[in-house]
Structure prediction request, 287 residues.
Amino acid sequence: MEKTKYPGVYYRIKTSPTLGEEKVFYIRYYDPDRKRHLETVGSSLKGMTEAKANMIRTERVKGKELPNRDQRVLEKEKREIENNRWTISKLWAEYQKNKVGYKGLDKEKGRFNLHIEPSFGDTEPKDIIALDVDRMRNNLMKKKKLSPQTVKNTLELLKRIVNYGWKKNLCQNLSFSIEMPVCDNVIDESLSDTQIAALLHELNQDKQEIVTWLMKVMLFTGRRTGEIEKLQWKDIDTDRQEMTLIDTKTKDTQVIPFSNRVKMIFESMPRFHKKHVFPNKVGTQRK
Prediction:
């Protein structure tokens, strides 16, 4: 090694067929515990100079900067801690692996990427407090002006992700209940309360009729006849209170929420067919 004008700072000349000639700088020093060190601090090709090497040496002599070996140990510990952190983003990645074939996953990806990740992506569930969720909810409703139902779907997704991690023993559950916005998407407003009561009275006269149950679902979801007629049992998730509508008027696949009342309808109605919710007389899909 060649000496420089700075005490304890040295260099070696190295030549590479691709990079050419470079100076590799070294420092020799005693740390505050009187341990002796000889360390590489950088190359001239990466901006290292004699003066910079001397500044690094001074900081390490004073104990203001760790030796190379201690820095490597610290970085390793940080990586191990990071790998063991089950953040919301990491839980989300694991959650998706178990949702193969779930038709609503694309919608959930959009909600997560747009609304959840910016607020909680790098946060562990144990570090989330109710005030954090309140701020996100208010931001979505007041600043982004999202509908109460969209905000509710987003908050429910956050809750499901954390619950998934908790059930898999990957993280702690939230220490509070998430307050959901109030949604009013149940009754078709074109009917008065009196008209609705009269219609329900007529529908309840024969609970075995397929059309009876079909009209109830239409009444309390406000969806078109063609959409409800095409429902299959695999399209209905009563746990999440969501149903997937195929081939709607816009030619899109939509995952929409439904109320507790609709959930009760799906859970109490007869299974007229193993596949179709509202089959026709020959047991196939209505048209």
Notes: Residues 151 and 262 are 20 Å apart (CA to CA). Residues 148-167 form the longest helix (20 residues). The first strand starts at residue 2 and ends at 3.
